[in-house]
Write a structure and sequence with these properties.
This protein has about 280 residues and is mainly alpha-helical. The protein has a domain at about 165-280. It is built from 16 helices and 2 strands. The chain has helices at about 1-10, 20-45, 50-65, 65-80, 80-90, 90-105, 110-120, 125-130, 135-145, 145-165, 165-185, 195, 200-205, 230-240, 250-255, 265-280; strands at about 215-220, 245-250. It is elongated. The N and C termini lie far apart (about 125 Å).
Length: about 280
């Protein structure tokens, strides 16, 4: 027993092995591992803080604007085009980019709209030449014929028609103009619609819009059939603001292609009552 006590109390001189050396090493490793895990967890939590994300984002934006960094990025992109092409085709990257651009567009709508207007004003000829290219026309036609694109556009148009009265009237006038050319013209449209229609003047003339709009038609005081739609000047006269008026749809259908002088509100109400009575009987 005394020998065992002496062995336990032995001094740790050079060359002597302590009895708990292995245990101490294992304990130190466990402590170090726990410390590393705790540090990782803190770093993960720290990086997810909004203020840290914003700070890093701002730093990266400033850093990427440096001339040497721009040059380095440009060279890297030129040497890794295949990687870029494959990277941007990944579904998770597509969804992430779409979400980012949607958020950016909503936050900077006024600035983006202003930039687009300025660019269009300064590059009218360039844009016109680009839009007339055969490959551009073919691509646009192919895109617009896709079923998912048609469905998306229809949904957007229906929603906007309900919310924006001015947009709804513009669409109605343009559709009526398109139908009139199909019905009365043999040559079709020979120049852009804006050359025939002064849309701002038409909207101003038809303001205020009656409510509910679906109960009214935009009527031509002098009917369209009285004009030669192969003559651009005659088409302009047919669609002058002074030749347009609001009429209840029942009266407009009754009027048809007849030339009738504009009616007062009282005359319209009397005629509307008479038409409703005739319809019931």
């Amino acid at each position: 027993m005394l020998k065992l006590l002496k062995l336990n109390k032995m001094t740790f001189k050079k060359g002597n092995i302590p009895w708990n050396k292995g245990l101490t090493k294992w304990t130190d490793e466990r402590k170090l591992q726990k410390k590393k895990e705790k540090k990782k967890e803190y770093s993960r939590e720290y990086e997810q803080r909004p203020e840290v994300k914003a700070r890093r984002k701002e730093y990266r934006r400033e850093y990427n604007q440096l001339p040497e960094r721009k040059l380095k990025n440009k060279k890297w992109r030129e040497n890794n085009t295949d990687y870029y092409r494959e990277y941007y085709q990944r579904p998770e990257v597509k969804s992430k980019r779409k979400e980012y651009y949607q958020e950016y567009y909503e936050d900077n709508l006024d600035e983006i709209t202003k930039q687009h207007k300025e660019w269009y004003e300064n590059n009218k000829d360039k844009r016109k030449e680009y839009m007339q290219r055969p490959e551009r026309k073919a691509k646009k036609k192919e895109y617009s014929q896709r079923s998912e694109v048609k469905a998306k556009q229809n949904t957007h148009n229906r929603k906007r028609r309900k919310e924006d009265s001015k947009y709804a009237i513009c669409r109605r006038v343009r559709e009526n103009f398109k139908d009139a050319l199909k019905l009365y013209s043999t040559t079709g449209k020979v120049m852009s619609t804006s050359k025939y229609l002064d849309m701002d003047a038409i909207i101003k003339h038809l303001t205020p819009f009656p409510e509910p709009r679906e109960n009214y038609h935009i009527d031509h005081i002098i009917p369209l059939c009285k004009f030669n739609h192969d003559d651009p000047e005659q088409v302009r006269k047919a669609w002058l603001p002074s030749n347009l008026q609001w009429l209840p749809k029942e009266i407009n259908l009754w009027k048809g292609d007849r030339l009738i002088l504009p009616m007062t509100k009282e005359q319209q109400d009397k005629l509307l009552k008479r038409l409703k009575k005739e319809q019931k009987s």
